[in-house]
Design brief:
The complex is a heterodimer of chains A (290) and B (315).
Chain A (H helix, E strand, L loop, with lengths): L1 H13 L1 H17 L6 H19 L3 H29 L4 H23 L13 E4 L2 E4 H23 L1 H11 L1 H6 L4 H26 L6 H16 L3 H23 L2 H19 L10
Antiparallel strand pairs in A: 1-2
Helix pairs in contact in A: 1-11, 2-6, 2-9, 2-10, 2-11, 3-4, 3-5, 3-9, 3-10, 4-5, 4-9, 6-7, 6-9, 7-9, 10-11, 10-12, 11-12
Chain B lengths: L6 H26 L7 H18 L8 H25 L4 H21 L1 H4 L5 E2 L10 H28 L1 H18 L4 H27 L1 E2 L7 H13 L6 H20 L10 H20 L9 H9 L3
Antiparallel strand pairs in B: 1-2
Classes of the chains: A mainly alpha (290), B mainly alpha (315).
């Protein structure tokens, strides 16, 4: 019983940024059909922007979330305009697009070190307040991360499913030509998708960064799990991604507590997800993404 | 006799030749069958570690060169079997699933190398590897090892050329163009993919084992994305569809950084610790983007048969 309570609390709070990042990644994947490996660096840049705003201007952690998210969103849009849009205009294939995003990921990961420096960086924040939930101590940053995930998930879900712009986004994802003749401006809507995805990734990065440290590999270390969550959960839409993301966090926490070793937990999870994908089989169904 | 060679140059050449080997094997997967293996380092790493663990942890009743040969065979077989397993997992998945499967495998290898420290040395590393011969100085031993590696990569090149001209190679190309069509025509695409992954991964594992001998010390830090990136960027720059693509591309990328810049450019020493390696990776990443945007078939361009067909059909 104690293990279940601990797993629930730690899984939900510590891994909340995973859900946030997965939502942003899923938005891009489902609505543009692109597996963007460089999304890992959107997360990393969110952490760096947050740390920079925090250490340069002395802003507290909650305040830096806004500039970190907005700047990551802007970088996300810039990568679309400079790389992925020209690629699309040149009819670059799915395979090549993934390799391009891999190249962009590597370029950003190493390029940012020339701007922010090589050493690991840290947020300059006082130790977070601690609260007890189901008998487990939780830092305030993690609770804020969980609250942000809940709010952002709900907001995004309502935005995509209920708003007029959300309808335009879904229409664009289904049939771009038809959407265009219906008066939807594809460029504006696509930019909006990239911005929202970047905001979610940037905010996740800031939460990851404040929990430990800010390093070039921060986003890359999470990328595989984000990818797994989205590939498995994405079948059931954004709601599926959120549920699988939450379950992944809880499973990681439970296995880490049981094995006393985070890496074993990750290992079991990776193998588990691979088996699920194998059993389910995704036979050359590019259209299933939208 | 080898005064003109310094240790940096030998090691730089070794890396170039090894990456060419990996690029050639990746060419079979990416260039012919259009399967993007993002986990090259995983197969290379599992071969290196399987070799290293077998060489160090098992008390063999015989010494080198038999000890090396048996352990290298173990590394190659383990990598090949891993390739079969991963190939089976991703055979019916699309590009996204292949990314997940190969990246996931590379992560699993990294995790196992880190956690199983009783066998692998974990973060401390695994030392004690040595050349299977002793012909004199360290430099002479390393040079001979470079020659042996070059011969192995030469064999890989010959094998790749053979595949290009064989029915199996044509099946891979057909799968890369339209797998569903190839399958509907009764071609054994699943078996072809398994064989492809098994063979390519075994070759990558052998190259990993040979790298282990060269460095004599296995570190988990080697299992990052750098190896995969170097092989991929070299192949993409040279031309994914061409046999010589990896050779040309790797010389222009890895050769430029690991030989020209490391050995010949008079740059400040402190640059070599962080600035140059970081710049190297950033340039590699940028190269991937630029080539695929502006010259997707790389320097060497399309396959000869595609150009011939283009001329025949007036394209």
């Amino acid at each position: 019983m104690e293990l279940i309570a601990q797993s629930l609390v730690i899984g939900l709070t510590e891994h909340a940024p995973l859900v946030l990042a997965a939502i942003g990644f899923a938005l891009l994947y489902r609505l543009t059909g692109l597996i963007n490996v460089a999304y890992a660096e959107t997360i990393t840049l969110g952490a760096y922007f947050g740390m920079w705003a925090n250490t340069t201007f002395g802003l507290d952690f909650y305040t830096v979330l806004i500039p970190a998210a907005v700047m990551a969103g802007l970088v996300s849009v810039v990568t679309y305009l400079l790389v992925f849009r020209p690629a699309k205009q040149r009819d670059v294939g799915v395979l090549e697009l993934i390799i391009i995003s891999f190249g962009l990921s590597i370029f950003l990961r190493h390029g940012l070190q020339f701007i922010f420096g090589y050493p690991m960086r840290f947020f300059d924040v006082p130790p977070p307040d601690s609260f007890f939930v189901l008998g487990v101590g939780v830092g305030s940053f993690r609770l804020v991360a969980l609250a942000s995930v809940l709010v952002l998930s709900l907001a995004l879900y309502l935005f995509i499913q209920r708003s007029r712009t959300g309808l335009q986004i879904r229409a664009l994802a289904s049939d771009e030509s038809l959407a265009q003749v219906s008066g939807i401006r594809p460029l504006a809507v696509t930019i909006l998708i990239w911005f929202i995805a970047g905001v979610a990734g940037g905010m996740a990065g800031a939460f990851y960064g404040v929990q430990s440290s800010v390093a070039p590999l921060l986003g890359w270390r999470q990328f595989l799990f984000i990818l797994l969550v989205v590939l498995v959960g994405g079948t059931w839409g954004l709601g599926g991604v959120i549920v699988i993301g939450i379950l992944t966090g809880i499973a990681l926490a439970a296995m880490t507590l049981s094995f006393d070793q985070t890496l074993y937990a990750q290992l079991v999870l990776i193998v588990g997800f691979m088996v699920i994908l194998k059993i389910r089989g995704r036979r050359l169904t590019e259209t299933a993404k939208v | 006799m080898l005064d003109w060679l310094d240790a940096f140059l030998i090691f730089g050449l070794f890396e170039v030749v090894m990456i060419i080997g990996l690029g050639l094997l990746l060419h079979l997967e990416l260039g012919l069958a259009r399967i993007a293996n993002f986990g090259v380092v995983g197969f290379w790493g599992i071969g290196m570690y399987a070799f290293g663990v077998a060489y160090i942890q098992i008390d063999w009743p015989f010494g080198d060169p038999w000890q090396f040969l048996v352990c290298a065979a173990i590394g190659t077989v383990v990598a090949g079997l891993s390739g079969l397993l991963v190939g089976w997992l991703i055979a019916d998945l699309d590009t996204d699933g292949v990314l997940m499967g190969t990246l996931g495998f590379a992560t699993i290898v990294l995790i196992l190398a880190t956690t199983e420290d009783d066998l692998t040395g974990g973060a401390r590393g695994l030392g004690g590897l040595r050349f299977p011969y002793d012909i004199g100085t360290v430099k002479e031993n390393e040079f001979l090892w470079l020659v042996i590696l070059s011969a192995v990569v030469g064999l890989i090149l010959a094998f790749v050329r053979l595949v290009h001209r064989s029915p199996y190679g044509r099946l891979l190309i057909a799968m890369g163009s339209n797998e569903a069509l190839a399958r509907s025509l009764g071609k054994p695409t699943f078996r072809a993919k398994l064989l492809l992954f098994g063979l390519a991964s075994a070759g990558m594992g052998l190259l990993g084992a040979m790298y282990g001998v060269m460095v004599r010390f296995l570190e988990v830090a080697n299992l990052g994305v750098d190896i995969t990136l170097a092989a991929m960027v070299g192949l993409v720059l040279g031309g994914t569809a061409r046999v010589w693509g990896a050779v040309v591309g790797v010389f222009l990328t890895v050769g430029l950084f690991d030989i020209v810049i490391q050995s010949y450019l008079p740059l400040p020493k402190e640059w070599y610790t962080q600035a140059i390696p970081v710049l190297r990776e950033a340039v590699f990443g940028l190269t991937l983007i630029m080539v695929l945007l502006f010259r997707p078939l790389g320097i060497l361009g399309a396959m000869r048969r595609d150009r011939l067909m283009g001329r025949i059909h007036g394209r």
